[in-house]
Amino acid sequence: MKIDLFKLDEANLTRFIRFSVMIGLSGIIITISVFLIKGHINFNDIDAQKLSAFGEFIGGFIGIFFTLAATFLIWLTYKTQKQELEKTSSLAALQSKMLKTQQFENTYFSLLSHLSNLINSMTSDSQVLIEPSFQGKEYLHHAYRRFKDKIKEKGQSNIDNIKIASHTEEQRAELIKNVLVKIYEENIFPYHSFNLGHYYRFIHNIIKYVISEYEDEKLQRKYLTFLQAQMSNDEMGFILVNSLSKYSLDKNNNTKFKDWIDYYNILENIDKECTFDDSILKIYFPKTDFYCLRKQSVV
């Protein structure tokens, strides 16, 4: 019967050791008894030749069982130490993973806290805008309301005409996007770049930090959900239009920021009032599962 030592558990190894020792001891006892009964061992007249034969038999045959027991015992010791080492390695790996997660979360939630402080410190420049000063989320709300007012003033008629014209969805999205971006780039961002530019860069680097720390997409999405959760409708509205503008392009003129916003569902819960037209969402953010579109399809 073939015995695979690697598959033997501690209990079976212990049984083999006990069995081998018992066979060995039994062999010694039986051999001594036979030698005594046959008179081969006489303590008054020691026969060196018979004593040598006795020793050779004990060492050559009975010793096999003790050697076998010792082998099993050494293997049991090795296996136990190996298991302890594996447990220690697993525990060390787990502790390392927990420490990495703790360090990441400390940094990440600190970044979210800094983002909140950044927003709270935003203040409008009343001398440039010739209007009262606003701060924090109130400032963002006012700035975004100003953007929507500019759309009504300079682009709403164009948007309405585009919607009723015979265009494909792609064409309608492109035309409406051009109207929105033109108003944003000419009438909004230049007057709020001292706040919005910093804000967008901070959002970009938070997303970049999460992606660089974790390759697991589930973990990336898990942590970026916290970023999305603290965004107001005004922030999401600004991120949407900015990601379509020239100000979101990187140094190589790539749309990486918009791609991240789309891929990680950052605007999933944006208010419909901030989307301007469904075609914008469907064409430029095809990977985002927008709640407003899901709700609309159910109705």
Chain-wise SSE layout:
Elements (H helix, E strand, L loop, with lengths): L9 H28 L10 H73 L5 H4 L6 H19 L1 H9 L4 H45 L3 H13 L3 H11 L12 H8 L14 H7 L6 H8 L1
Helix pairs in contact: 1-2, 2-6, 4-6, 4-8, 5-6, 6-7, 6-10
Strands, total number = 0
Tell me the distance between the termini.
72 Å
Sheet bearing the most strands, described? Answer: none
Helix content: over 70%
Q: From the helix content, strand content and strand pairing, which structural class follows?
A: mainly alpha
The fraction of residues in strands falls at under 5%
Number of domain units: 2
Following the backbone from N to C, one meets helices and strands in this order, namely HHHHHHHHHHH
The general outline is rod-shaped
Which consecutive residue ranges, at least 5 long each, have pLDDT under 50? Answer: none
Could you tell me the mean pLDDT? 83
With helices defined by DSSP (H or I, 4 residues minimum), what is the helix count?
11
The Rg value, from CA coordinates, equals 40 Å
Description:
The protein has 299 residues and is an all-alpha fold. It has two domains: 5-97; 121-298, no CATH class. Helix content is 75%, strand content 0%. It has eleven helices and no strands. It has helices at residues 10-37, 48-120, 126-129, 136-154, 156-164, 169-213, 217-229, 233-243, 256-263, 278-284, 291-298. Helix 4 (136-154) runs antiparallel to helix 6 and helix 6 packs across helix 7. The protein is rod-shaped and about 125 Å long. The model has no long low-confidence stretch (mean pLDDT 83).
